[in-house]
Specification:
The protein is built from 14 helices and no strands. With 324 residues, it is mainly alpha-helical.
Length: 324
């Protein structure tokens, strides 16, 4: 689907490049916002508040876009109406793509650094490929296997930075963050099976609605617990972080992503997200004063090199990238 601009012409390269850059910057600052918010809020509280608020914000976004003629023409769901299977599809996709992904992303950052989390999230195509092979949606060629081994070596180098131990907080955080990324990979792999039935905006909006409904009881419990313990009066930085993650990183970034898909292939757009780990790491060192190390650089380069090796051997096709 392609959405016409107000003038009816395709936007220029500068506009498209600026929009892509905006998405990368917004998602990179998402790591910083999460770290700031976690200084004041428990991980489950922050993660659940973000998911519920993002679902609420997607309501006016969906209603606004649904009035566009281009959307009405492309929305099969709007033309045929809801059936029971649609609710089931949005429920399991919302569980993996929104609930697991965003809750684990927030919780993982409580125990690991921005640089570690950014590289793990940036390896999204590896998790997608592994699940696609396991579900027999793709074949495991030698080129892909070599790339996966290279990426795993990079993660091993990253994990060995402070010594590999099951009692390491960083290792625990890395594992939780990876679980969230694997949840998004499940969303991508399962979503490919039904991608032809729904347009991107409908998929994004209703998956957020489903994720918000799943997490709502947790959010209510966490809010009641904050009120009961007298910790409800939090600094403005905590609420600003939650609002940023819900409104900018979830709702508005997805709208820009959806708009750009009208002019670019998903593979073209996804390629730019390889800048995300680099920018997020730089922001973590500069803004949060996180300590950088050569093992981080080496592990990150090896891991992302493995991702690039796999993608360089793919035929031109649609590729999805994980959103933090």
């Amino acid at each position: 689907m392609q959405i016409e601009s107000a003038s009816g012409r395709t936007p220029g390269r500068i506009v498209i490049a600026a929009s892509i850059g905006l998405i990368v910057v917004v998602w990179a600052f998402n790591f910083i916002a999460a770290k700031i918010g976690l200084q004041y809020l428990p991980p489950l509280a922050m993660g659940s508040f973000r998911v519920v608020l993002a679902g609420a914000v997607m309501v006016p976004v969906y209603i606004g876009f649904s009035r566009l003629p281009a959307f009405a023409e492309a929305s099969n769901l709007r033309q045929r109406g809801f059936v029971a299977r649609d609710f089931w599809v949005f429920l399991y996709l919302g569980f993996f793509g929104v609930t697991v992904n965003q809750i684990c992303f927030t919780t993982g950052l409580r125990f690991t650094s921005v640089s570690h989390a950014a590289i793990i999230v940036g390896m999204g195509p590896i998790y997608i490929l592994a699940l696609a092979v396991l579900l027999r949606l793709e074949s495991a060629t030698s080129h892909k296997v070599i790339g996966m081994l290279i990426a795993l070596l990079g993660i091993a180098v990253l994990a060995s930075e402070n010594g590999i131990s099951v009692h390491s907080a960083s290792l625990e955080g890395d594992a939780i963050t990876m679980t969230g990324s694997i949840g998004f990979a499940m969303y991508v792999v399962l979503g490919k099976r039904v991608a032809g039935k729904y347009d991107p905006l409908t998929m994004t909006a209703f998956n957020h609605f489903a994720g918000a409904l799943i997490v709502l009881p947790v959010a209510i419990y966490e809010a009641a617990n904050l009120y009961r313990t007298g910790n409800w009066r939090l600094p403005w930085q905590a609420w600003a972080a939650v609002l940023y993650m819900a409104i900018f990183s979830s709702a508005l970034a997805y709208v820009f992503y959806f708009w750009l898909l009208g002019y670019l292939e998903a593979s073209q757009l996804g390629a730019f997200t390889y800048l995300l780990p680099v920018l997020a790491t730089i922001l973590g060192i500069w803004w949060l004063r996180e300590k950088g190390s050569w093992s981080q650089v080496l592990g990150g380069v090896i891991a992302l090199g493995g991702v690039y090796w796999i993608e360089s051997g793919r035929a031109p096709t649609v590729k999805d990238s994980a959103a933090p």
